[in-house]
Specification:
Length: about 500
């Protein structure tokens, strides 16, 4: 065997073991007994130790040095690019630190869930302080003399920097704020849906929506979780959702959102399975798929007409006059506490706030003890609403409890990318609305699969979007889409 063959065989087993680790994480959030948290932390630490050893195995460096890339095709070169980046990155992190991070974040996740349920930030603060301390230590190992937060970002969006994101977010903020003020001051305000919606019917509709958007249940399943998520790749891609008896849209759109993530993973070329190319290339690109499924397609006037018919058939009279009024209700703009339930106008403002706070946490400019006050003050400034309880404030998201610093900005990057993809899709599929109006998403999802999803990690993140769209990504298509949509709904 050649050095390339040896490296790929080693990588294949590493990818398989990483999949097992991911399945343990899925089980922890869906099926695991609550009393197993401490033991699961030890299990996660053990498997992380094995994975870290494989990812930093000196033979990987030897194989990389022995391979002559000049005779390789684009796919093989891309595999080497990913392996080299991961090898160099993981080699900077001590094995003991990697295992301790896995153990502490596994335990921290359970502590967060308990504290959130009890509305008790003080009970969570000690373990969050431990997580932040470990992440600062990891960032220092990775960054060298560079920026600590940039080192965290590279885990989720290779090539992104805090300074670059700050520039992007500064371009978004003024027009988002202006649009919000115009919408909230409009004479016409869509009605809010009211009533009680049976959980069984919500889950039935969730499965129907997942299937309508192309989710393959032969290679996946839907379960319930506190925080909806997607897990896995290739032949085993699982999603979760949640229900709220008075808010059927939470279940519907959480499911469509996670279906976008899942279809990306299921749509990747099967030949890339158990290789570095067999997963989504970045979380920003991943989020572009979930957000375009959820918003540009799922909340469009065309598709909400179909959804209105389905929900009326399931629940009877919704108290909404017609499909046009229902479109306004689905897209109703209102300041709210919860990021995952935020409308499209407010959503990115939630992310911009979290970006600033977590950047300060990693740099040391903000300490965990001061986080609730900092969150509440910033939230009132940005949204004009006083935070009433921790679960509506800094305890609402799972991300920091599991050490995902640098993850939040990829949500807004995903929205920016989704705006670009919609613009390209509308040109490629001129009868898009007519198809969505009858619940047919196949042309839209097929276009995404053909132009983006099947390539997995073949290209760098921005190149993945540019290849699909035919132009370089920018914030302008997203802003144009939002302004046209919500000025139309609100008559402004």
């Amino acid at each position: 065997m050649t050095a390339f063959d040896d490296l790929m065989a080693h990588q294949r087993d590493t990818e398989a073991l990483a999949g097992i680790s991911g399945r343990l994480g899925w089980d922890q959030e869906t099926m695991m007994p609550r009393g197993a948290a401490e033991q699961r932390g030890e299990e996660m630490a053990a498997i992380e130790g094995v994975l870290h050893a494989r990812r930093t195995d000196p033979r990987v460096g030897d194989w990389l040095d022995a391979i002559d890339p000049s005779g390789l095709d684009a796919v093989a070169k891309a595999k080497l690019r990913h392996i080299r980046r991961d090898f160099e990155r993981n080699s900077k992190v001590p094995a003991k630190l990697a295992a301790e991070l896995a153990r502490v974040t596994s335990v921290s996740q359970g502590k967060w869930a308990e504290a959130r349920a009890a509305e008790d930030f003080a009970a969570f603060a000690p373990v969050l302080e431990r997580v932040v301390g470990l992440k600062r230590e990891e960032a220092s190992a990775l960054a060298g003399n560079g920026d600590l937060y940039d080192a965290m970002l590279d885990d989720y969006e290779p090539g992104a920097t805090g300074a670059g994101l700050e520039t992007l977010f500064s371009a978004l903020r003024p027009r988002l704020v202006a649009l919000r003020e115009a919408v909230l001051g409009a004479d016409h305000q869509p009605a809010q849906i009211e009533g009680s919606f049976e959980e069984a019917a919500q889950l039935q509709l969730a499965r129907e929506m997942a299937q309508a958007f192309g989710y393959d249940f032969n290679r996946g399943r839907i379960d319930k979780a506190v925080h909806p998520f997607c897990s896995g790749s290739g032949a085993d891609v699982r999603i979760t959702t949640r229900t709220a008896l008075t808010d059927p849209f939470s279940c519907v759109y959480s499911t469509i959102h996670e279906t976008g993530h899942a279809c990306y993973e299921q749509g990747i070329d099967p030949d890339f399975a158990l290789t570095p190319l067999g997963q989504g290339v970045s979380l920003g690109v991943h989020e572009s798929q979930s957000r375009i499924f959820e918003n540009q397609l799922g909340r469009s006037r065309a598709f909400t007409g179909h959804l209105f018919d389905r929900m009326t058939a399931l629940y009877g009279d919704l108290g909404i006059a017609d499909a046009d009024a229902f479109y306004g209700t689905v897209n109703r703009v209102a300041p709210g506490y919860i990021r995952t339930e935020a409308d499209e106008v407010h959503y990115n403002l939630h992310i911009l706030m979290r970006f600033d706070l977590e950047r300060a946490l990693i740099s040391g400019g903000l300490e965990v003890a001061d986080l609730p006050d900092a969150w509440n003050a910033r939230f009132q400034k940005d949204f004009g609403v006083v935070v009433d309880k921790p679960s509506n404030g800094c305890l609402q998201d799972v991300h920091w409890s599991v050490g995902l610093f640098g993850y939040f900005p990829t949500y807004t990057l995903g929205n920016v990318y989704a705006g670009c993809l919609l613009k390209a899709m509308q040109t490629a599929v001129p009868d898009l609305d007519a198809q969505l109006a009858v619940g047919d998403t196949t042309a839209a999802t097929g276009w995404l699969r053909e132009n983006l999803q099947r390539f997995g990690g073949l290209r760098e993140p921005r190149d993945t979007i540019a290849h699909a769209c035919g132009f370089e990504p920018s914030e302008e298509p997203l802003l144009e889409y939002l302004e046209a949509k919500f000025r139309g709904i609100y008559g402004i």
